[in-house]
Amino acid sequence: MADSARVRLLVVDDDPSIRDLLAVQLGHEGHDVIVAPDGQAALDTLSASPYDALVLDVMMPGMSGWELLAWVRGEAGLDTPVVLLTARDVADDVRRGYELGANAVMSKPYDFEELRLVLDRVTTELELINDSIVLPADPARVPAPFPGRWSVDPKEPGTVGG
């Protein structure tokens, strides 16, 4: 992701001081930052509008970050990059985060430079994946990189196939 690219972020944390600090810090990086105070508010926000990345606190009243992440990956079927922030620095939380589909799991207190780098990495990876998926109208008619070596029909050299 280019430094000048504006990323639309949803920051979800029940602690207003952390939520506001993240909004200011990420806003200074040039990103569009929307905040939500809990998982249910985030679910409502995500249902109404797409985001480029999510930063989720794990332990929140009501719908936890775990539950919100499970909804994002499951019911909503979103591939939006997710960074989890947890106040517990334990291997079980890290493992659970990755098992549920988080792109990164970070401990609080977080290091802003690390968070910035993680967000840049996960959004760039998604852009590269999305940009590389190009399906031709007829995959059998895609020219082979080495004409004559592969073909769908032996009578028709230069097409991809077996």
Principal-axis shape equals: globular
Number of domains: 1
Q: What structural class do helix, strand and pairing data support?
A: alpha/beta
The gyration radius over C-alpha positions equals 20 Å
Strand content bin:
5-15%
Q: What's the quaternary structure here?
A: single chain
Q: What is the residue-averaged pLDDT? A: 82
**How many helices in DSSP terms?**
5
Please tell me the CATH architecture by its name: 3-Layer(aba) Sandwich
Helices and strands, in order, run as EHEHEHEHEH
Uncertain segments of ≥5 residues (pLDDT<50)?
144-153
CATH topology term: Rossmann fold
Distance N to C terminus: 37 Å
Which strand order do you get reading across the main beta sheet?
Answer: 2-1-3-4-5
As a percent range, the share of helical residues equals 25-40%
